[in-house]
């Protein structure tokens, strides 16, 4: 989808500070970091929200979670938060599924 920012980052058309990429996923630093580590993990496949996943995406979601743990570790974080905002009311602003990997500072729960 050429009008999707994260599809353009995935294809390389838009720039990002990438920390990982493979056939199915890309991870890059958030432009507005909420902590010393703030990395977004996205599927190359355009999926608008977590609620749009289908059974066919089960393996993909497992892969994204594993990439998230890998990039957190590579960034020096043993403790981190993995978050997905689903829908505008939950704070989603980019409608291409992404996992936030946030770490390097104390994280309160619930997040507020
Ligand atoms: P969310 O609010 O959950 O949809 O998170 C979207 C995140 O995407 C937000 O933390 C800021 C980040 N973001 C938005 N535009 C860009 C961009 O052009 N580049 C990068 N690296 N991050 C972006």
What does this protein structure show overall?
By secondary structure, the protein is of the alpha+beta class. The chain contains 2 helices and 5 strands. A hairpin with a 3-residue loop joins strand 1 and strand 2. The longest helix is centred in the middle third of the chain and has 17 residues. The structure holds 2'-deoxyguanosine-5'-monophosphate. 2'-deoxyguanosine-5'-monophosphate binds next to strand 2.
Key structural traits:
112 residues, alpha+beta, 5 strands, 21% helix, globular, 5-stranded antiparallel sheet
User: Any idea what the shape is?
Assistant: globular
Structural classification: alpha+beta
- The low-pLDDT segments are none
- Helix % is 10-25%
Assembly category: single chain
Number of helices: 2
Alpha-carbon distance between the two ends: 32 Å
Order of helices and strands: HEEEHEE
Q: Please provide the count of β strands.
A: 5
Mean pLDDT: 97
Write a short abstract of this structure.
The chain has 112 residues and is of the alpha+beta class. Helix content is 21%, strand content 22%.
Question: How would you summarize the topology of this molecule?
Answer:
Layout: H1 5-11, E1 18-21, E2 25-29, E3 37-43, H2 58-74, E4 80-83, E5 99-103
Antiparallel strand pairs: 1-2, 2-3, 3-5, 4-5
The structure holds 2'-deoxyguanosine-5'-monophosphate.
